[in-house]
Predict the structure.
Amino acid sequence: MPISTALVTTDRPARYLKQLISHLGHKTTTRLLDDTRGTVTVTAGTCALSAGPDGLRLLADAADLEGLARVQDVVARHLVRFATQEELSVDWTEPMAGGDLDILDPVVDDYLLSHCTPADEVLRQLAATTREATGSASGMQVSHDEGVLLTMLTRLVGATFAVEVGTFTGYSSLCVARGLAEGGRLLTCDVSEEWTAIARTAWEQAGVADRIDLKVGAAVETLRALPEEPLIDIAFIDADKDSYPVYYEEIVRRLRPGGLVVLDNVFLGGRVFDPAYQEAHHLAIRELNDFIAGDERVESVMLPVRDGVTLARRR
C-alpha cells in the first residue's frame, strides 16, 4: 500500500545524493543512475532519489507501513547526518496507495482533449455505442487523444503492416488503420465476437474495413502463426495484462528495424508503482517495464499518456 515522498530543500542536492548512495552502498543495495538520480534498496523497501533545482526529492515505497517507516528512517537519518554545513528537514507526506494516485487530473484531461485533432462523427458514434453496449467496461476503450497518437505514430513509421492485440470495440483499430500507408493492412486480435461486432460496424462506416483482418481467438496463437521474419512496422498491445510479456516477445522478434511497439496501461492506474500490489497482472507489467528498459534490442521511452504508454523502437 504505502508510497511517501519528501522534498528536502538544499543547494547541494546532487552532493547529498552521491554521499547517500556511496555510504549506504556498504550496507544495502544502491544504484547511481546518473549525476541526478539514484536508488537505495533495503530489506523493507526502496527509496528513489533525484536532485533538481528545488532540492533533493525522495520517493519511498514498501509493502506495508512498518517497512515504509524503516525506509524513511534509514534515508532521513543518514541524510541529516551528512549535512554538516546546513540544517536539513525531511518531511514525508502521508502514506498513500498507488491505486489512489490521480494519474490524470480532470483539468488536464479536458485540456488535452480540447487541444488535439477532434474526433469525427464515426469516432464519436463509436464511443457512444461502446458506452451504451458495454457499460463500465467502456473504460477499456482508448481515449481520443491516444487514438490520435496511434494514427500519427502509424503514419510516422510509414506502416504497411500493423498488429494489434486487444480489439475491444475497434476504436484503436480504426485509428491505426487510418494511419496505414497505401495498401497497408492491420491484423487485430481479440477473443470477443460480441464486442468486435461493434468494431466491424464502425470500420465499415469509416471505410477502413477492407484493410483490417480480425482474428477472434487466443492472440498468442495468432502471433506465433506469423512468419518469423521481421515484417511488423507497428504494433499496439492493449489486452490482458498477464500476457503482456508473451505478446511483447512474439512481436519484438518480428518487428522490423525502426519498427515500433506501443504498450498501453503500463501504470495500471498507479498500482505498478506500489509493491503492495502483488497480483499476477501487477507483477507481469512491473517486470515487463523493467525488462523493456534494459532490452538491448530496442530503444524505449515511457510516456505519462493516460494510464501510461511505452514506445519501444526496434534497433
Observations:
- The chain has two domains: 3-96, 106-314.
- The mean pLDDT is 94.
- Residues 148 and 175 are 7 Å apart (CA to CA).
- The chain has ten helices and twelve strands.
